[in-house]
Amino acid sequence: MLTAPALAQEAQENLGDVIIVTAQKREENLQDVPIAVVALGTQKLQQLQVQDFDDYARFLPSLSYQSFGPGTSTIYFRGVASGENANHSASLPSVGVYLDEQPVTTIQGNLDIHVYDIARVEALAGPQGTLYGASSQAGTVKIVTNRPDTSGFYGAVDAEVNTVAHGDPGYVLEGFINAPLSGNAAIRVVGWYDKDGGYIDNVPGTITFPINQYDEEGDIVDLPGDDISFSNAAFVEDNYNEVETYGARVALQIDLDENWTVLPSIMGQKQKSRGSFWQESGLGDLQVQQYNPERMNDRWFQAALTIEGKIGNWDLTYAGAYMKRKVNTESDYVDYAYFYDALAGYAQYFTDNDGNQVNPNQYIQGIDRFTKQSHELRIASPSNLPLRFIGGVFYQRQSHNIEQNYIIDNIADAITVPGTDSDIWLTKQLRIDRDYAAFGELSYDVTEKLTLTGGIRVYKYKNSLEGFFGYSDGFSSRTGVAACFRDEDDNLLPPTVKGSPCTNLDKTTSDTDFIHKLNATYKLTDDALVYATWSRGFRPGGINRRGTLPPYGADTLDNYELGWKTTWAGGLFRWNGAVYYETWKDIQLSFLGANGLTEIRNAGDARIWGIESDIFIRASDGLTFNAGFSYNDAQSTKDFCKFANTSFDCTIPGPDGDDNELLAPSGTRLPVSAKFKGNAFARYEFPVGSLNAHLQGGLVYEGKRTSDLRLLERAIVGSLPSYTTVDVSAGVAFERWSIELYARNLFDSRGQVTRTVQCGETICGDPDGVTAMGGKFYTVVTTPRTIGLKVGTKF
């Protein structure tokens, strides 16, 4: 039996109780950092079977997200979510994602980085704006890789086979090598291949378009004999949502001398998925009826360079990166076509060159091209002095070349968007978001126990959107080509974005401002501190592509937080937590407006109060326990009107004199995030002869969530019920080998992650029950029970 001091030492060495984090852009013990940070170290990531974003997101209580499949997740912290639809032309994310020193945040879904040979995942809850900038309004997620090591040659290989309940098998092969090149240089090479089996069935179905038309009185009627029916027989398949992910990372570390280190690296990944990752209302469990191909090919790489050195006794760091991402998608859009035909008679206009009716079935082919470069230069004074400074300058430019082809096969040339084969609608836009900042934080130890910190970030953003969106002028006399810019002789001006027929969008918005942070930290003992923080985060404003709508401004989040970090019994027990009150001003609310176009407005204000906490206990030399939870009460504090105005008065008419409407009164609960989310995790390690064995179990609970801020749309789509998942595993390790059997989601819980419709809720949701199909809703659910066997070796 180990003594208490020996237990404490083992807790620190083997369980990661002492975790070095870089949350404040310095290497610090997690327990000395006066901000709310949850860090999952290398061992904990392995123990929790973490391989991708969905896996680690479950164990971060303050984090919630919406997802439509791999590579499409939108992240939120502490309930700061308005239910936005993450459209390519809409708001930037409110949570920043970093890969080592460089931001990799992109709109329309964060990178789904495969997690292997990762030092830790850090979740920084609350505004991180002074050090991390624009996309860290509500929090930041940092994925920190293991660096090359000059101490020796070593590596590992891990293999896994698994099977998904109601689905297909999968398998994983991963490995890394760390190799010294000399006494002052080393290289680290990591590679992975991951095949996830599908579990959603695309079942047989037939859809009938009524081909409604207008009668002489202007009413929509279904003319007999004109209906068009077709089936999805060509796409019927069981377990069709499989995912294949493979990639590599290479990092080189060169110690130029005892003060300067150069760390270049490159990481790339390709992820191919087929099918959809939701189940459809009106069908059986894990079933959909899709009538067109659904695929996603997401590939990206990031080249990064970090230089670390000293000028005198000050630390100088440069961190730069260039990222390129290309996403090809194919999506079914038949619901949109059906409902707009059944409710508004749109299909009657879709004819061929001879005037014959064509099948109005609609699908989307998209290409999203992202580039992102970032540069940060910062300097930090010695960390052992009573007066400490860290500050620097930052620049970022991210571009998004957007191409979305909405296709109806065989339509007439007159209604086809010029330059396309059969597009009824084309979006071809170039979006550029630029960020400039200077930042700094100054800390002073007033006494040995009391430290005061002040921080500021002066920023400028400049965001632009140009290009084309809409119909041909043969289909619409007011939008699309008909709205393109012309010269004084009424000739179309040449397009500014390659691949578009002309230009009907060219908008830019910019602003300059600053945000702050004030913190007081008091060390009760060497193992306990309390802190108070007032911090602010922001999200840049942007463009509304609809011409009649103005740009939307930045929204801000003020955070008032009291927290504590405590360690007891020499490391055997740890209890951290925070209570906070946040005010969210000028919320950027995005939703589908008229004609299914996204609109963004600064809709109002909200407040969030909550508490989050996590504990670690080592009960004996082999038994450990972790638990964490968050509680958030988030609600609006101003009425949300159909037409926004500065007084938030819904009796004031719209800009054209239109009647206003109260969409959500003050006091409405914010959507997406649960009030309560928690997890618990226990592990028991014990010897079996010469083997080291373990048993492990964990559970995650996600509370009930609402789907929308607007009450009508919320009632149509419905709320997402609470759910619980349970994971178990058992394994042994001997010499350099390990083997482990695990079950994730042991009881096959069908937890609901996201629910959506293909078009506006009042159309595709069919609240009045007008159509034969009824409303069509799609729900992303937790992956069914997965049982896997892992084998690994180290060398």
Describe, in plain words, how this protein is organized in 3D:
By secondary structure, the protein is mainly β. It is built from 7 helices and 44 strands. The protein has a 22-stranded antiparallel beta barrel. The protein has a 5-stranded mixed beta sheet with strand order 3-8-9-6-7. Strands 20-43-42 form a 3-stranded antiparallel beta sheet, with no helix packed on it. Strand 32 (588-592) and strand 33 form a beta hairpin. The protein is globular. The two termini are 30 Å apart. Residues 1-16 have low confidence and may be disordered.
Amino-to-carboxy terminus distance: 30 Å
Could you name the CATH homologous superfamily?
TonB-dependent receptor, beta-barrel domain
Percent helix range? under 10%
CATH architecture grouping: Beta Barrel
Q: Give the strand content.
A: over 45%
Whole-number tally of structural domains: 1
Note the topology.
Blueprint: H1 4-14, E1 20-21, E2 28-29, E3 37-41, H2 42-47, H3 53-57, E4 63-66, E5 74-77, E6 95-99, E7 102-103, E8 118-125, H4 129-132, E9 139-145, E10 154-164, E11 169-182, E12 185-196, E13 201-202, E14 206-209, E15 212-214, E16 220-222, E17 228-231, E18 243-255, E19 261-274, E20 278-280, E21 287-288, E22 295-311, E23 314-332, H5 334-344, E24 363-380, E25 387-407, E26 423-445, E27 450-470, E28 505-525, E29 528-539, E30 555-568, E31 573-585, E32 588-592, E33 598-602, E34 606-618, E35 623-636, E36 640-641, E37 662-664, E38 676-688, E39 691-702, H6 711-717, E40 723-734, E41 737-744, E42 752-756, H7 761-764, E43 778-781, E44 786-794
Parallel strand pairs: 6-9, 13-21
Antiparallel strand pairs: 1-2, 3-8, 4-5, 6-7, 8-9, 10-11, 10-44, 11-12, 12-18, 14-17, 15-16, 18-19, 19-22, 20-43, 22-23, 23-24, 24-25, 25-26, 26-27, 27-28, 28-29, 29-30, 30-31, 31-34, 32-33, 34-35, 35-38, 36-37, 38-39, 39-40, 40-41, 41-44, 42-43
